[in-house]
Design brief:
Elements (H helix, E strand, L loop, with lengths): L5 H4 L16 E2 L9 E12 L5 E9 L5 E6 L4 E4 L7 E4 L5 H4 E5 L12 H15 L3 H18 L7 H8 L11
Antiparallel strand pairs: 1-2, 2-3, 3-4, 4-7, 5-6
């Protein structure tokens, strides 16, 4: 007897909102944050990850915002159609969970940081998220701490200790009190 998965027990299919690829034709765009969009698998290239392993880079273009995202896999999960004919396109293999085969995607999240956030803080948060996805937990926590320190400097937060500075941030900005 197998253990039920989230998709077996979720009648509302909300688990699909956490995925990039719903199937070989539909995905959730991390740029425009729209769901259930068609996309084009624009190109697939491979390179040697190390002496024994290939890596495949999949470039996907959103049909809504026309932005391109990159997805890495150690598995060959796409095929090229019509290399020697007038029809020339790529497609993901049928009957697979594409997200299960992807180990890294850029952008790495559906949480897109607003341009009003200073560039240095956006970059540190993005680096932390990428480190977390690659299971580099020390690097992820170091990047987040550095982002918080940058926020302290930018907001001119005063306090003797780290905890004091965090508490001082509560009084800054226009966030609702229940978030404090």
């Amino acid at each position: 007897m197998s253990v039920p998965t989230e998709k077996d027990v979720s009648p509302d299919k909300s688990y699909l909102d956490k995925k990039y690829f719903i199937n070989p034709y539909v995905y959730n765009c991390p740029f425009c944050n729209r769901r259930n969009l068609s996309y084009e698998l624009d190109e697939v290239i491979d390179f040697d990850w190390n002496n024994d392993k290939k890596c495949y880079v999949h470039f996907v273009i959103c049909s809504s915002c026309d932005k391109s995202s990159m997805h890495l896999s150690y598995d060959c999960i796409a095929k090229h159609h019509g290399a020697y004919s007038a029809i020339d396109y790529w497609s993901f293999n049928q009957d697979i969970d594409i997200d299960e085969h992807i180990f890294y995607s850029v952008p790495t999240s559906f949480f897109v940081l607003d341009k009003r956030i200073p560039k240095i803080i956006r970059e540190l948060i993005s680096e932390a998220e990428g480190s977390l996805k690659m299971n580099f937990l020390t690097g992820a926590s170091a990047c987040m701490r550095k982002a918080i320190y940058e926020l302290f400097v930018r907001e001119k937060v005063k306090g003797e200790h780290y905890g004091d500075k965090i508490k001082a941030l509560k009084g800054k900005g226009n966030s609702p009190s229940e978030l404090h």
